Amino acid sequence: MQLFKGMVVLALLAGLTGCASWLSPNSVRQNGSVVDYLYPNAKEAPTLQATVTQLRPPVRVGVAFVPGGSWGSALTEEQKAKLLERVKAAFSRHAYIGSIEIIPTTYMRPQGGFDNLEQVARMFNVEVVALLSYDQVQFNDTNALAVLYWTVVGAYVVRGDKYDIQTMVDASVFDVKSRKLLFRAPGSSQVKGNATMAGFSESSRAARMDGYNQAVNQLIPQLQTELDGFRERIKSDASIQVANKDGYKGGGAADWWSLAAAGLLAALVYGKRRRAA
Amino acid sequence: MAYDRPEILSGQIWRLWSGHLVHYSPRHALVDAGMLLLIGLVLEPLAGTRRLCIGLALGGPGIALALLWCAPGLLEYRGASGLDMLMAAMALCLLWRSGGLSRSWLMVLGGALLFKTIGEAGGIWLGWSSLPQGVATVWQAHALGAACGVLLFAGSPRKRSSAD
To answer: Which ipTM was obtained for this model?
Structure first.
């Protein structure tokens, strides 16, 4: 009887301490790949055609997240919009960039390819699109304190669950018409933490968002650097032509008619002054 | 030296002044210089040399800064006609106040300048432009110059006559 009771207690202990691993998987992955979006059915490498990319500053730019490949999304539309606002702010500091449009993910069809990209670019009237792809992996483990979960109260106060969230965000800037990748910039982060069993879901959700924020923090200065490098590169790159839009170059010019009117004014005033003198 | 939007935004603020001094062609420079000279002959006795110089020194960058804000698509600008319009507006206002010319003439000339600027804004080709082909007339510079001229006039005290 004593032996039987001992076995039951051991079984309960093993079950309770394993609760954390029952409730959440060891790893969770969310990703959105720009390659899967732009080349959905590619069975062989796309053939590169020699084309000349024409850029006409001030360039109209769109920024968008690549649609996620897996069911559901790590980020809500609102969270994505906030991240895109930060990328937009980084682009807007450059005078060669005209308007910047944030493109909601709802307009991006999963595996839509360049055809979908062109449709979206026409809809939002943009010439260049910055596509943000992401890859976030969350590893879940328990630590030694998890043994205290069996106390039931321990599930609410003991931080026996831990997470390790690794995030990578990549901005790839494409010219829509020529389908050419102009430049890209990466950003990554790692967020570690622990939580109670009861609060693990909420803590890890906040940490995932924090992971994205930190990755974008790293992405933005890289993007600035790559954009500056791109401006220098295009000066010697024959495959990219810069042709400014109409009206970019202007002059303040008095015409001959204005000159005649000024002459008339001067003559009238001079005449009046002579009569008064 | 020209007004260059990206360069100004990256810190080359001297272009706020020098942009008004450079031109696209000798003809462009000749016409603008002729305007400055003719209006200057009218304006300097009215406003005084010091006030005129201060007005040009402040008005030049004022026009350029306003262009940065209201003409974001304009990447390059050259020419002194913004300053021409500033001086013309100031001269017309001072002549109106001092009675140096009949008001009928002032209304005709002022109305003609206004009509010309509106026509440029509407894209109506009035002809006889001194700009080379491919360079658009920046009507905003003319309008801003005239506005600066009126503001400078409003801020200037009345000149005391010798009888005071």
So the answer is: 0.81
